[in-house]
Structure formats: C-alpha cells, structure tokens
Write a structure and sequence with these properties.
Order of helices and strands: HHEEHEHEEEHHHEHEHHEEEE
Distance between the termini: 25 Å
CATH class of the largest domain: Alpha Beta
Number of strands: 12
CATH architecture of the largest domain: Alpha-Beta Complex
Strand order of the largest sheet: 7-9-6-10-8-11-12
CATH topology of the largest domain: Phosphoribosyl-aminoimidazole Synthetase, Chain A, domain 2
Number of helices: 10
Structural class: alpha+beta
Length: about 325
C-alpha cells in the first residue's frame, strides 16, 4: 500500500501501535526532567510543499521555519528555549540565498528569545529541506494536550482563520490582493501571547494549533479526546480582508476559514462558563463524529490539508 492511499493520520496511528507507551499524536513530546517538564518537537519545511522561492524571500522562509516550530511548543502551554536546525540543500544552492534564510531564522529566534544550539548540514539531490528540533519547558499546571477535551466543552478559536489559505489562492492564481493576506501565508505567526494566557486557565482542558486547518485538526483533537464536535459556521469570525477577497473572486469565506491550513491559530476546548468575549464556534459532543452547520442546516465539509491524501488544501 502506498502512503497516499493510507494517509498521514493512519500512518501515525500505525507508528503509535509500535510504541504503545508513548504518545506520538500530540504536537510535542513531554519529557520529565527533574522538577520540570521539557517539551520537544520536530517540524520541517520542504521546498514545493511549504514554500516556493518565487513567492517567498529567503528571510521569510527562515522566519516561517521558526514560527511553525514555536507554535508547537506554545500550543502545549510551554515556553520555547532552544532549537537545532538540520538543512539539506542541493550543491548549486546560492550561498547568499542560504545566508538570508539564516538571517530570517535569527530574526525570529530573537523575537521569541530562542537560542540556536547546533544542527546538521547535508547535500540534497532534490529540493531544499529544513528540519528544526525545538525544546521548551512547561509547568505541570500549565501543560495543555489535545486529548483532554470533554463533552460539553466549548470550542474556541484564538483568532480568525483562513487568511493563509486566501493568500495562497492569490499566489496560485497570480492575483493581486492585500499584503496582509500574502504575509499570512508566507510568514505565519505563532499565537504565543494567546497561548500563554490560555495555558494559565484551569478552564482550558485541551489546546492545539491549527497547522492543517480546522477541518483536518478538529477531528484529531476529537479522536485524541474520545469526543465528537458540532461546529456552527455562522459563528466563525471572518476577517474583513478575507471577506472582501472571497467575495471579489467568488470564494466561500467560511470554507476558506474551515479548510485552509497554516494559520497557526489555537483551537481550544474549555469550560463554556469561561468563554465571555471569546470566539466560540461550537461544542464537544458525546457522539464521536464532527458535524458542521450553517444557516441551521447541516453541511458536509471535506477535510483540510493531508500530506499524503488526495485533497491537499494548503
């Protein structure tokens, strides 16, 4: 069987069966280190999948590399501290281009007070590949995992989503649009400040970042927690720029918001009594399925980005 037939989630589940004593499904590994908990995560960017040189500057690529890794740490309630970087590039890669990538990495590291502690460099016969291993720490009381949602929990988004997807569509179709949408795709930002706030709240039961989109990531939270979900698309906060661009080109704003990946907003399951002023989009249910409703009617929504699936959306 080929991986594109199996799919990414099924592959990870098969790996989990080989290591039943470890949780391989969450954003970070949790390692006990004396009196504290260490968080470790690995994420990579592959040319042609996560970035294109004709769309993004090298410094933007470097910043994105750091931000997507920081997002894994903060969405678990932690504070990132160190990272190492493995780089695989063809021999004909411009040294000056690569130096600019590293300048972008340094800029993002300074923004998050991260230290680069090493890595590896190899020659790649194919596209450029950047892989980061990031380390952070978290107090046990602040640790948030995706597997602790409960029936009745409110589902909350930390900020509007769909901007990265809109930026990608503009790029793919050579369309003009607001710079903010292009930036949302080229240099997404970890929602660190919101993550730190939510991590401090006992009312928050589960949290994860949206890397592959709500339609792909919500089922993962539900499966890990043993719950289902009901989502009201009418309650999504659609950013004004997304609304304007979608209407101009005949795109569905709600589909862009639900199916688009690489927004790195936080998806939170929490006590509904503590959601005043927050973007509540639905509720966790006892029924083990995810259902979407719009204008009072149920709506079928295809899943978001799937690395080995037939429906890549981001």
């Amino acid at each position: 069987m080929e991986l594109r037939e199996l799919g990414e989630d099924a592959w990870i589940r098969s790996l989990q069966s080989l290591y039943p004593d470890q949780d391989l499904t969450d954003d970070c590994a949790v390692v006990e280190a004396g009196c504290s908990l260490q968080l470790v995560s690995t994420d990579m960017l592959v040319e042609g999948t996560h970035f294109r040189r004709d769309w993004s500057s090298p410094s933007q690529i470097g910043e994105k590399l750091v931000e997507v890794n920081v997002s894994d740490i903060v969405s678990s309630g932690g504070v990132p501290s160190h990272l190492s970087l493995a780089v695989g590039v063809p021999g004909h890669t411009s040294f000056e281009w690569l130096q600019e990538v590293y300048r972008g990495i340094k800029r993002a590291c300074e923004r998050h007070q991260l230290r680069m502690i090493g890595g590896d460099t190899v020659r790649s016969p194919g596209p450029c590949i950047f892989s980061v291993t990031i380390v952070g720490s978290v107090e046990a009381s602040r640790l948030k995992r995706r597997g602790n949602a409960r029936p009745g929990d409110a589902l909350v988004l930390s900020r509007p989503v769909g901007l990265s997807r809109a930026g990608l569509l503009l790029l793919e179709n050579s369309l003009s649009g607001p710079d903010a949408l292009f930036e949302a795709h080229k240099v997404p930002r970890a929602d660190s400040e919101a993550a730190y706030r939510f991590a401090a709240q006992p009312a928050v039961h589960a949290m994860m970042d949206l890397s592959d989109g709500l339609a792909a990531d919500l089922p993962r939270l539900c499966q890990a927690s043993g719950v289902g979900a009901r989502v009201d698309l009418d309650r999504l906060e659609i950013h004004t720029l997304l609304q304007e661009v979608a209407l101009a080109h005949g795109w569905s704003p709600s589909l862009l918001a639900v199916q688009g990946g690489e927004d790195y907003a936080l998806l939170i399951a929490m006590d509904p009594a503590a959601t005043a002023g927050l973007q509540v989009i639905g509720v966790c249910t006892e029924e083990p399925n995810v259902r979407y409703f719009e204008a009072g009617a149920e709506r079928a929504i295809a899943s978001g980005y799937e690395h080995f699936g037939s429906n890549p959306q981001a």
